[in-house]
Amino acid sequence: MNSLDRRLQNLDWDEYISKEPMFTEKDKVRIREHLLLRRKKKNSFTPTMLSFAVLTMLFIGLSGYTLSNFGIITLNQGANQVDPSKYEKELENLNLPLKGAHIFDPKNVQIDDTFISGQLKLKSITMLKHQNDPKEYVEASFIGEVEVRGTISKSEKKINGIDQPYVFLPIQNDGQSLPKSHHDLRTPIIYLENQKDVEKSLMDYDGREVAVILSNYKINYTSSSSFDSAIFVSVVGPIKETPFQFMDKSLISIYDNLKNSKDESVLKDLSPKEIFMLFYYAGSIHDFETQYLLYNHDPNMGGKMTLEEYIYESNKNAKQYFMMFEELKQNDQLTEVIVDSQNAYIKIDDEGMGFSLTKDQNGIWKANWMPLQ
Amino acid sequence: MNPVIPISRLIYRIKGGEQLTVHNEEKQDLKYVTKNREIALEELMVLFGEELKRLIYLYVKDRAITEDLVQEVFVSIYLKLDSYNGDSSIKSWIYSIAINKCKDYLKSWNYRKIISMNVFSIFEKEDGVSPEEYTIVKDENSLLFHSILSLPIKYREVLIFYYYKDLSIEEISKVVGINPSTVKTRLRRSREKLKQLLPEEKGREFFGS
């Protein structure tokens, strides 16, 4: 191998392209927006009575509603230029359309499409139109039984003529999230249709977080106050696993505090999963100095590095941290497992990948050296 | 239809480079991926967004153009997902789309106009590096990187895929669409051209190191 070949092989290209992550949420929004506009433009070439009516309204000077409010963009792009910033704003404000493995577009979804690893199959779907409302309301029913996690609770509202009926409140953003339409921003409430027959079971678990089996799930998305329904089959058991919510405001505040003060005592009351989240957050923003503080520095810990060595080595893999953090935010298998009072790990997948932590001599959960195994 | 394995697991495997072709038992997954284009796009953005944007930058050397092109590349991926048949790895397929977009841009009138404007200033390089920044280009690796960027695209791209993306000669041949012997020839010539641009390499050559 000659000298130039060796230099090319050792060249850290990423350092010179950009030290910071280049592909950001802004890029994602722009791509989604581009596709949205493209779909709307495409639709514009099939003029309908509705689009004609809307165009006429525009011409006679009615304002207040734009075409985008109706979800319709019309034909004459020259005369009615779509304002991308408006769509960007709309997407940001409403966070629509929703994205995720359990989200469906009612226009594209098909009968027999399956959700939640095939546990639910779409049986029927009807799109409902509400005047002047851009949201796509739907009624849909599914075949199959599904395990869902959430709380059994008594509703404050009267449903189907029953005062305070039992409802099931699924955990949102759970790995086992039930299917929902891409415009559906309701907090899910599932009315249990067979509650008279299973009242004893429901009473036993009233107010508790449990995993339950439901069947005949139906979406009744007709307004913000509508509710879905299902048949309650059984309770699997109380919930032990906790799905992760990455970096809420309080955790970011603790992170900033640690970064500025270098005082590890701010980590005192944090759980293993919170330390894990801070660890990858630090990596994603290439703050390896703060990340270094999250390791267990007790004298008996093996595999330690100096701060300088650590920063040098970590910078080589900086891009991977960013990617990993993005992946972790979408990983629905993350589970905190407390082994004993001193040891814990975060289960990352079913193939045995985990992130290990131990309590240090100050009683603070810290990452082990080479934590990911 | 439901995938045989979860989509996230499939994508993990694709990303890991373990799966260069889709095996029979995973045809169902492929069908699932191509059918659920919105979901696939979201996952592909997470997995390949950063990588693609960096790759595109190495082709066009302009951050604003890179922003636009990465957007176009993902829109193309979304629109063409149905045509992906699993004959090549999804990574190679995505690379090919990105390369075509970049080359279309480099052939475009817009790009040629920018180049012709830039020749009036010896300091206004295509990547927007200012004269001040040029004085900071002090270490040898930085000089090497900028020298690579200064090579014509046909030489630059083989270096990118061979040394940066760690592809084999055969893989480069498929991704770039040239035969393997041409890849080897271009690699050799690109190194020769680099040596001409790097004073320290000329020195080393002279002393036989």
Structure description:
The complex is a heterodimer of chains A (373) and B (209). Chain A is an alpha+beta fold and 373 residues long. In chain A, 32% of the residues lie in helices and 23% in strands. Chain A has 12 helices and 14 strands. In chain A, the strands form 3 sheets. In chain A, strands 5-6-8-10-9 form a 5-stranded mixed beta barrel. In chain A, strands 11-12-13-14 form a 4-stranded antiparallel beta sheet, with helices on one face. Chain B is mainly α and 209 residues long. In chain B, helix 3 packs antiparallel against helix 4, helix 4 packs across helix 5 and helix 11 packs across helix 12. At the A-B interface, helix 1, helix 2, helix 3 and helix 12 of A face helix 1, helix 3, helix 4, helix 8 and helix 9 of B.
List keywords for this structure.
A: 373 residues, alpha+beta, 12 helices, 14 strands, B: 209 residues, mainly alpha, disordered C terminus
Number of helices of chain B: 12
Q: What is the CA-atom radius of gyration of chain A, in angstroms?
A: 26 Å
Shape of chain A: globular
Q: Name the average pLDDT of chain B.
A: 72
Strand adjacency order, main sheet of chain A:
5-6-8-10-9
Into which percentage range does the β-strand content of chain B fall?
Answer: under 5%
**Number of distinct beta strands of chain A:** 14
Number of strands of chain B: 0
Shape of chain B: globular
Question: Assembly state here?
Answer: heterodimer
Distance between the termini of chain B: 61 Å
List SSEs of chain B in N-to-C order: HHHHHHHHHHHH
- Unreliable parts of chain B: 1-26, 113-137, 205-209
Reported for the largest beta sheet of chain A, the result is: 5 strands, mixed, barrel
Structural class of chain A: alpha+beta
Number of continuous helical runs of chain A: 12
Q: What is the percentage of strand-forming residues of chain A?
A: 15-25%
Helix content of chain A: 25-40%
Radius of gyration from the alpha-carbon trace of chain B, in angstroms: 20 Å
The CA-CA distance between the termini of chain A, in Å, is 34 Å
Return the structural class of chain B: mainly alpha
